[in-house]
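TICKET: design request
STATUS: open
ATTACHED STRUCTURE:
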């Protein structure tokens, strides 16, 4: 048996801090972000150690437990992190169902994040009662591979290629989607979810590189009296999932490579069954080359309305 090394108890109080920094960072990486931040009060060596991590997940989930000031304080913390750190590869900031968040803080956060070599970015912020515009939010994310935007704000996006490396885009901000598409020259997967489309009458998804498209609108998000068309022009599209209001008119173009599709068109509370049937048939006719097709009962009922 090897000799047991004896230590004075007083000398063992901070043995963990004596570990190499790489080991300490590995330990911190196993913790939730909020717990990693809390280690900053342990000792001088730990004060800024958490800012050397590469992945961060900040969130406020329960609006009853947090007021807007707490949300703005969290944004300030993230902003300080973006100024201090040079290693951020993954950043997630989610503040759900909290109103009166400072829009300027969000704009500045997004601008600061664009200066990092972030590969994964998820932002879920705001409330639909906030009618705010984020100016000068996106200037370009050269290294970004995945972007998840769940913003209840209107983004100001100028023309140009902003995301030259982006492969996956998930977005719920209907006021920004069209210009976001034009800035993603190598996009492979696109998800549109829970967009309300209050001021949008036409969306054109014309992306030659696109392989997978998910359109998931809550059927109550779009007024049945609101005319809207979605053109899908994606010659290399392999997979399509569509869950939405049946009175949205889809215009499929060049969907010759599609392999699998899942279509779920809500049917309840329709005033114009004939028009809904027309929209359903037009969508299904445009994916006639599909090899595997799943249709919901509502979709079949909607289609039968034309008979």
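STATUS: resolved
RESOLUTION: sequence designed for all positions
ATTACHED SEQUENCE:
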């Amino acid at each position: 048996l090897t000799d047991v090394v004896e230590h004075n108890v007083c000398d063992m109080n901070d043995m963990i801090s004596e570990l190499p920094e790489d080991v300490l960072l590995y330990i911190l990486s196993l913790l939730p972000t909020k717990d990693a931040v809390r280690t900053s009060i342990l000792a001088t060596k730990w004060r800024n150690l958490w800012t050397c991590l590469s992945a961060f997940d900040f969130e406020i989930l329960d609006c009853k437990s947090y007021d807007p000031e707490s949300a703005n304080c969290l944004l300030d913390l993230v902003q300080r992190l973006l100024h201090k750190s040079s290693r951020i590869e993954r950043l997630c900031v989610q503040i759900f169902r909290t109103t009166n968040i400072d829009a300027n803080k969000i704009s500045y956060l997004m601008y600061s994040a664009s200066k990092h070599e972030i590969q994964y970015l998820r932002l879920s912020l705001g409330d639909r009662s906030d009618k705010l515009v984020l100016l000068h939010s996106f200037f370009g994310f050269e290294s970004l591979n995945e972007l998840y935007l769940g913003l209840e704000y209107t983004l100001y996006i100028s023309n140009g290629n902003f995301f030259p490396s982006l492969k996956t885009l998930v977005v719920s901000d209907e006021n920004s989607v069209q210009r976001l598409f034009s800035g993603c020259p190598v996009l492979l997967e696109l998800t549109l979810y829970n967009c309300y489309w209050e001021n949008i009458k036409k969306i054109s998804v014309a992306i030659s590189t696109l392989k997978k498209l998910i359109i998931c609108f809550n059927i109550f998000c779009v007024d049945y009296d609101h005319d809207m068309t979605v053109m899908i022009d994606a010659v290399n599209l392999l997979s399509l999932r569509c869950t939405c209001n049946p009175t949205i008119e889809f215009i499929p173009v060049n969907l010759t490579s599609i392999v699998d599709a899942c279509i779920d068109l809500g049917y309840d509370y329709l005033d114009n069954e004939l028009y809904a049937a027309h929209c359903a048939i037009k969508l299904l006719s445009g994916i006639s080359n599909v090899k595997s097709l799943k249709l919901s009962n509502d979709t079949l009922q909607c289609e039968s309305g034309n008979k």
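CLOSING REMARK: Residues 54-177 form one domain. The helical segments are 21-29, 33-38, 68-84, 103-113, 177-182, 273-285, 297-304.
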